[in-house]
């Protein structure tokens, strides 16, 4: 599933102490993988394996953006939330581009503070600014209302084959 | 919408005269863009613009594959059907990969011959062989049964913001 487990409801979205920024390779030490494991099975990765995948994704430049939320005042600066956007280039729509939002998750202890919504809204802005004609995501039916707060409307069904 | 307008029902899937292959830049002259316009608004592209986007996608190697169906015996060798697969690299699932099927369309005059299913099944095989842990697509609810023939099951809802 592309996007599940953000906080169920957003309350205060003006928490200025929380910083939203792009993923850095050193975030491996700040619990980034453990955070993802709240969304999907996610064995820990060695520093080397993490760095290799980080470099692969970084090579895509602004076509692949992972945002993270951190509290700079926290002693461990653990990652509290994350969301990913990648840009798909098509031929249709005049060589149009589509933003895909994936892997949105907020740490269980940090939910209800609007961090997920801040990240998703930022990813939508980035998609628009990149010239995408739309941005899409897949989620469980229960999260329809959550993503509606970011302007998303239901468009279809997601189908999958698991190997 | 990611994947609509393949043929509504597949009959004979053993039409050996139809060849499934990867998109070539010269397919611009074989009605590839006009075929896509049966799926989504798709203004014609100059040869130069088409070639530029083709090169961008070709640079992704096997992470971006567009298959097309053609009848080699036809005089104009027009493209009869197409489907796209791109591979997303993640951190979760042990640096897992996900296949995304997009832009499946069969020419209105060639529907009912199983071309869409042949292409989608091939894209599923490619995803599996590439080591993806799943392959996903978005479609309209009416196409659930169609994609079920390729092993897809419904997993969630697709949400979108259009700009």
From TrEMBL, chains A, B:
One of its GO terms (cellular component) is endoplasmic reticulum membrane. Pathway: Nucleotide-sugar biosynthesis; UDP-N-acetyl-alpha-D-glucosamine biosynthesis; N-acetyl-alpha-D-glucosamine 1-phosphate from alpha-D-glucosamine 6-phosphate (route I): step 1/2. It is a peripheral membrane protein. Residues 18-163 form the N-acetyltransferase domain. Signal peptide: none annotated. InterPro entries: Acyl_CoA_acyltransferase (IPR016181), GNAT_dom (IPR000182), GNPNAT1-like (IPR039143). GO terms for molecular function: glucosamine 6-phosphate N-acetyltransferase activity. It is an enzyme of class 2 (transferase). Pfam families: Acetyltransf_1. It is found in: Endoplasmic reticulum membrane. One of its GO terms (biological process) is UDP-N-acetylglucosamine biosynthetic process. Keywords: Acyltransferase, Endoplasmic reticulum, Membrane, Transferase. Its main location: endoplasmic reticulum. It catalyses: D-glucosamine 6-phosphate + acetyl-CoA = N-acetyl-D-glucosamine 6-phosphate + CoA + H(+). Homodimer. Belongs to the acetyltransferase family. GNA1 subfamily. This is Glucosamine 6-phosphate N-acetyltransferase. The lineage of its organism: Eukaryota, Viridiplantae, Streptophyta, Embryophyta, Tracheophyta. The gene is Os02g0717700.
């Amino acid at each position: 599933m592309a996007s599940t487990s953000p906080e169920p409801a957003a309350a205060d979205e003006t928490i200025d102490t929380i910083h939203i920024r792009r993923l850095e390779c050193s975030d491996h030490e700040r619990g980034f993988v453990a955070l993802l494991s709240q969304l999907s099975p996610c064995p820990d990765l060695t520093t080397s394996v993490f760095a290799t995948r980080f470099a692969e994704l970084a090579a895509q430049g602004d076509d692949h953006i992972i945002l993270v939320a951190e509290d700079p005042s926290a002693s461990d600066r653990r990652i509290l939330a994350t969301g990913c956007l990648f840009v798909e280039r098509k031929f249709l729509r005049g060589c149009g581009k589509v933003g895909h939002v994936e892997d949105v998750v907020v740490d269980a202890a940090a939910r209800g503070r609007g961090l997920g919504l801040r990240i998703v809204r930022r990813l939508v802005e980035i998609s628009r600014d990149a010239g995408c004609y739309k941005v899409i995501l897949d989620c469980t039916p229960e999260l329809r209302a959550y993503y509606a707060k970011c302007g998303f409307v239901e468009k279809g069904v997601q189908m999958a084959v698991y190997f």
